[in-house]
Structures are given as C-alpha cells and as structure tokens.
Automatic annotation (TrEMBL):
PROSITE patterns: BON (PS50914), CBS (PS51371). Keywords: CBS domain. Residues 11-68, 90-147 form the CBS domain. InterPro entries: BON_dom, CBS_dom, CBS_dom_sf, Diverse_CBS-Domain, UCP036990_CBS_BON. SMART domains: CBS. This is CBS domain-containing protein. Residues 143-212 form the BON domain.
C-alpha cells in the first residue's frame, strides 16, 4: 500500500497554548512573538476548550464585535471585544482533528467549519499538535522530482514489482505521463489508479501496452 500522509505527518507538534486566565496582553504578545494566527486554549489537563485567533485580538483592539468596525447586537461578540482574558476572548466550542486523519479529511473539516486551523488531539482528548491550511497545502505542493521518484520506487517497484525502466515516468507541474509496457492488460487501470493516489499528482496520462 502507498503511504498516504496524515495530519500527524504535517502538523506542528510544538503548540503554543493559552490558559483560560491568560491576560489579553499576554495573548497578543504570544501570537505576535510566535508569528501564529491562532492558539488553542486548554484546561489544566491539556484538553482544548477554545481557540483564540488574530481576528479575536483585532476585535478587542478595535473595541468592536467585527474587525472591520461594523456594529453588532451579539452580546457574546461584544463581550469578546471587551475581553481581558483568553477564556472570554476565545471562540468555543473548539473543533479538533486527529493525527491519523488523512489530508483530504482534515481539509474537508477546515472547510466545513470555516476555520483556518484545528488543534490535534490524542485518544484522551489532549492537544498534541495543531494543523493549519498551509500545512495541508504543503502536503500537496511537491516537486515533480519527488512525485516521479515515489511513482518509480513505490508504485512501479515496491508495489507492482515491475522491472526498472519498464514504464517511463514523466512529471510536469504535477501532471504524470506514463509510457511503456506492463505484463497484463488488467494492470493498466491499476497503475493509473495507484499513480493518481500519490500526493501531489494532478492528472495521469497513460500510454501503456500489455506484453501478455
């Protein structure tokens, strides 16, 4: 089987966390000093109870519920705009990911929840990392050389056991072109499917013939 990268492969393990009682000025300083867009708020056991983002800090700085300065009638939003601690400033409930999630699964969750990052929790519900949109994008932005090497070594060699050079692999901007021979006709769709499953592959064009 191909190794499909998971959230655990791309997440940031050294997570900057906040406590519910962390003062606002310290929250802003930590986000700025670590150049991060958000940080999870955790309880005494390390379980996430919310997330504070740069947008939350901006709301506080403008004194308005909306970062653009628009008025609002949401009492919770106004409370966050006047917050003095991370516990009041944070967004809750917090949506989390698991380290064994696939990259597409995490990407779908980010999109569904309309958030830019997800704390990653273990079986006990404790924070072990954080994954962002950029982390997930990096998993798909691979060089053509990396993609070609994985196809040649893992797909053609390790999985299918084809002779070296039986199938020539060309990759350009993520588009894969295959030329050569495979032992049986039924292997052609298998080869294409396996190549399409390689991270970073955009499309596969197969010019393959069967020798048997």
């Amino acid at each position: 089987m191909l190794h499909r990268r998971t959230v655990g492969d791309v997440m940031t393990e050294e997570v900057v966390t906040l406590g519910p009682d962390t003062p606002f000025q310290e929250v802003a300083a930590l986000l700025d000093a670590n150049d991060i867009a958000a940080a999870p708020v955790v309880d005494d056991d390390g379980a996430p109870v919310g997330v504070v983002s740069a947008s939350d800090v901006l709301r506080h700085e403008t004194g308005m519920p909306d970062p653009q300065g628009l008025d609002g009638n949401d009492e919770r939003a106004w409370g966050k705009a006047r917050a003095r601690t991370a516990g009041v400033l944070m967004s809750s409930p917090v949506f989390t990911a698991r380290a064994d999630w696939t990259i597409p699964q995490a990407a779908r969750e980010l999109r569904r929840r309309h958030v830019k990052q997800l704390p990653v929790v273990d079986d006990d519900g404790l924070v072990t990392g954080i994954v962002s949109r950029s982390d997930l994008l990096d998993a798909f932005i691979r060089s053509d050389v990396e993609i070609r090497d994985e196809i040649e070594q893992d797909v053609m060699g390790r999985i299918l056991g084809l002779d070296k050079g039986a199938v020539a692999v060309e990759v350009r901007d993520g588009d894969v072109t295959l030329r050569g021979h495979v032992p049986e006709p039924r292997l052609i769709p298998v080869v294409v499917g396996l190549c399409q499953g390689v991270d970073g592959v955009v499309a596969v064009a197969a010019h393959l013939a069967a020798t048997g």
